[in-house]
Here is the input.
Amino acid sequence: MTHQDKRAGRRRTLELLFATAIAGALSSQAGAQTKTTVRIGYQKYGTLTLLKGRGTLDKRLAAQGVAVQWTEFPAGPQLLEGLNVGSIDFGTVGEAPPIFAQAAGANLVYVGYEPPSPHSEAIVVPKDSKLKSVAELKGRRVALNKGSNVHFLLLRALEQAGIAYQDIQTVFLPPADARAAFERGAVDAWAIWDPFLAAAQKQIGARVLADGKGLVANHQFYLASRTWAQQNPALARVLLEEIGKVDDWGRQNPKEVAAILAAQTGLDVPVVELAASRYSYGVKPVSQDVLREQQKIADAFAGLKLIPQPISIADAVLASAN
Here is the structure.
C-alpha cells in the first residue's frame, strides 16, 4: 500500500468517525426533545406543594423516563387558564375555579379530590374593624379573587346572613393585591384562603368574621386537560398514587410538613404551621357525590349570572370515571 493510499484510508476513517459522532449527537438531541414531560401547576398550599418539596414524584417518574415541570400560580383561576391554553397538564384548585373555567369553554376533566377543609378559607376584617358579623357587610367593599373557592364561601355567608350578593361591593383582586388593599383600608373585608389567610392572621392580626364551617365543604380538586388525561391514564394514576402517599406522610408528620412548606413558599414557619393545621388529607378519585356538590355550586353561580350560562359538571368527567 502506498503512502498516498494510507493517507486516504486514514481520512476515510476520520470522516466515518466524525459522521458517527454527529449522528449520535443528533440522536441524543432528538431523544431529549421527545422525552415525556408532565407539566404540573400548583399554588402556595396543599399536597402538590408538599409533593414538589419532597421530590418523590420526580424521582419515581425519572426512573420511567418522564420529567416533571412545576409551575406556580397565584390562584386557581390563573392556574386553570394555564391548563386551558396548554401550558400545564395537571393541577389543583378549589371548588369554584373549574366551574368558571368550564363555563368559559375550558376542556378540562376532574381527576381526584381531597376531603372537606372548611376552616382553610374565611372572610376576614382588620383587627380594629368595628364589623362584628357578615350581616354588617351590607354596602361594604369586599376583596376576593374572582372565581376562586372563596367566591362561593362569600355567596353562602351572605345568604345565611340574609344579604343579597348585589348588596355588597365586590372588589376583584389577586391575593397579593387584595392584601395590600386590605392593609391600607381600601376594602372593608377580604375573602381569602390559606396560607394567605394564616399569614393575614399571624402577621397583621386579621380577624375572622366567618370561615367555611357549616357553609361550604371547600374541597380541593385535581384536574387535567381532557386530551392529556385521555392520552396518559397510567401517568394520571401514578400522580394520584404519589399524592396519596404524600397525604399519608403529611398526616403523620406535621412538623416536617411545616418545614417543607416554609421552604417552598418563603413564609414563616408559624404561618405555615397554622395553615397546615387546617389541611385535609386523603385524595380520592372523583365520586358522584362530590360531583353533585359541584353541580349545586355551578347552579348557584349560574343563577346569579356569575357564569355566562348553566353547565353540566358531568361533561367535565371522563367516561370511565362516571
Q: What stands out?
A: Residues 13-34 have pLDDT under 50 and may be disordered. DSSP finds 13 helices and eleven strands in the chain. The CA atoms of residues 199 and 271 lie 5 Å apart. The longest strand covers residues 36-42.
